[in-house]
Fold NodB homology domain-containing protein.
Amino acid sequence: MFIIKLLNVSIIACLNLASASVDVKAQHPKYISITFDDVPIHGEFTLPAQSLKEINQQLLDTLKKYEIKATGFVNESHLKNNPELLQSLLSDWHKHGHTLGNHTFSHISYHQADLNTYLADIQKGATITQTVLGEQKQKFFRPPYLHAGATDNAQQMLDNGLEKLGLTLVPVTMENADYVFDAPYTVQLKNKHVSAVNIYKQYLAFTERRLDFYESASAKMFEQPVPHILMLHVNQLNADSLDSILMSLQSRGYQFQSLEKTLQHPVYSQPTQAFKFGIHWLFRWDKSNENKVNWATEPEPSADAFAEHQQAVTTLKSGKL
Ligand SMILES: [Zn+2]
């Protein structure tokens, strides 16, 4: 019942977004690929198996509604004690025609591991995934925390290692800090508290601000629209809000296309300098080239939002709900 009420709010939010952005529809075609990290679940805290099934199913249903073939980057470790459930959830993604990429086994940071340990963790992370894919080879890799090498040499070593494994590193050009909002949202939803709706609205509003910013940054950086890659995480909040996010993207004039197609654009072949922190590729490209964007103005979740996130993760981990 609570969810139904919540979804009504979502529909109203969508209608508002759609009508507000109609004239923004671009003359040039705009393309975007949708990607999910942490398939089958973002692992900051543990949820019951039934919730995992529902979250994944909701995401798959919404992607189907928009006829989107997405790419999901798999972490196998979160369900290492329940391989049957892991296999069943991954099979659902595969059967729906989505691509399953690699996100390491244990969600480790490349900046805190030596190359061989890291590459071994990547290989371990494809065990169940490969049984689901059968003959099909895994092609794509997304580094946890977007840690792609803290030095130019480390970055090059990772690229070489991935190439030997037949994997391509997949950049991100748009992201919306979804995990910050997801933990407090999950707590309030479990409590059946009305403030879940507020968090949901804050999340969608923040997503709009980020999309506005990335569109404006791209317009400064490139003469023509470049195809984007949106990174979302598999979580309760995105299960409930994906419809609104996709509708917003459509109303901004985006057409959804496969990751293969997006990566063919030359912008994705350009080298970038290394960064010690995890950051999206619009920033990397701009900083490595003409530095046209004032990145200090990139919207960030508020300090309160981060504090609420931390508190919610502690509550969820304590199992007191
Ligand atoms: Zn991740």
Q: What stands out?
A: The domain at 32-318 is CATH 3.20.20.370 (TIM Barrel). Residues 40 and 89 are 7 Å apart (CA to CA).
